[in-house]
């Protein structure tokens, strides 16, 4: 596997992290700001450098290249596999649908003999990550997992884009299938937040919209914790995700705030909030967030079955970025310490897709660092 990376910034343009690869590249992962993904000239340049590659990616809340985190830029990672192949499918998300049908179409197109893994990027504001992940779990064969993330738009929550062989588009999802007996894929997803306050019951919800906890307005509860910062919702709510306990002593699932509705007193989260579920608010623990990133890297290597991953795709939540602020690169440094010379690329998201714990398939996570590792043997 050969990997070459480039960075584009508005001030400087393209900087050559490594030379263009020519026509043997099969895949270019492109993560950038919505403005960057809308620029036809940037896509045309990538196409000129990599004429036969699938150029795919999404908009972000920050771009990862090596151990650096960039904002409002474009990171391009070109991959030339030696003995593996890829396939892809781009699916529009229709109005008044939650993305389930799109996930089913991804599985329908990509499932065939030789499939080793699926990676997917989704419009982060129109796809219900819970429904999308559930459909992938149901449609993918046993032993085939999916990872990926929900596109982001910094902390603006206005429009998110998916790129697939053209400039970015809203209301789309893309799936990439990886095939070949010589390809190894690992994954890991770890949080690092601390829960606090009483255990509460979800007493009214609909899908990923939460109305009440313990019979009281969820929005008013959040405002009471945020105080003067409540005027910054939904962005400030990213600092207080919600933990849904699994009832079996496991890690549970974390859900992050994506929107609010003052009229109904409701809050929209990155995944479903089932009625009757037990939930706790969470807050940041800086050291545990950094340790969580290292833990995700270690888990990715363990599942890879070797300690020399060639490529790692890092997808971390925008909420972690807002909390860590100037310490943001510490979580990437922690990943580097575990993975060594592995090429690192990725982005900050509105949700992360990865199997949960020892379970296969796919699950929606919020506020985690999710890492997918690749190696050819």
TrEMBL record:
Residues 218-356 form the FIST C-domain domain. It holds the Pfam family FIST. Residues 23-217 form the FIST domain. It comes from the Bacteria. SMART domains: FIST, FIST_C. This is FIST N-terminal domain-containing protein. The lineage of its organism: Bacteria, Pseudomonadati, Pseudomonadota, Betaproteobacteria, Burkholderiales.
């Amino acid at each position: 596997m050969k990997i070459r990376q480039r960075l584009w910034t508005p001030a400087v343009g393209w900087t050559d992290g490594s030379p263009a690869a020519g026509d043997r590249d099969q895949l270019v992962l492109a993560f950038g700001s919505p403005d960057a993904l809308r620029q036809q000239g940037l896509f045309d340049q990538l196409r000129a450098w990599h004429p036969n590659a699938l150029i795919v990616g999404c908009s972000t809340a920050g771009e990862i290249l090596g151990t650096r985190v960039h904002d409002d830029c474009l990171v391009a990672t070109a991959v030339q596999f030696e003995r593996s192949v890829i396939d892809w499918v781009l699916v529009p998300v229709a109005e008044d649908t939650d993305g389930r049908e799109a996930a089913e179409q991804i599985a329908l197109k990509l499932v065939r003999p030789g499939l080793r893994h699926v990676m997917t990027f989704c419009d982060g504001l129109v796809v219900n990550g819970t429904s999308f992940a559930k459909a992938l779990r149901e449609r993918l064969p046993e032993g085939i997992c999916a990872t990926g993330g929900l596109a982001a738009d910094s902390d603006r929550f206005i429009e998110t884009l998916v790129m697939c062989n053209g400039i970015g588009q809203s209301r789309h999802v893309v799936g990439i299938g990886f095939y070949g007996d010589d390809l190894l894929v690992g994954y890991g997803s770890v949080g690092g937040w601390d829960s606090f306050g009483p255990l509460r019951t979800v007493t009214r919800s609909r899908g990923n919209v939460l109305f009440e906890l313990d019979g009281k307005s969820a929005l008013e509860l959040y405002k009471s914790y945020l105080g003067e910062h409540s005027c910054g919702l939904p962005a400030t709510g990213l600092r207080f995700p919600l933990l849904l306990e699994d009832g079996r002593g496991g890690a549970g699932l974390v859900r992050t705030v994506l929107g609010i509705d003052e009229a109904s007193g409701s809050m929209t989260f990155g995944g479903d909030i089932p009625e009757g579920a037990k939930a706790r608010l969470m807050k940041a623990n800086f050291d545990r967030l950094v340790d969580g990133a290292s833990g995700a890297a270690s888990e990715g290597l363990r599942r890879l079955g070797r300690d020399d991953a060639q490529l790692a795709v890092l997808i971390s939540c925008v909420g972690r970025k807002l909390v860590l602020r100037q310490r943001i690169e510490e979580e990437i440094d922690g990943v580097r310490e575990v993975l060594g010379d592995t090429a690192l690329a990725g982005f900050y998201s509105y949700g992360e897709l990865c199997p949960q714990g020892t379970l296969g398939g796919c699950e929606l996570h919020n506020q985690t660092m999710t890492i997918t590792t690749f190696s050819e043997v």
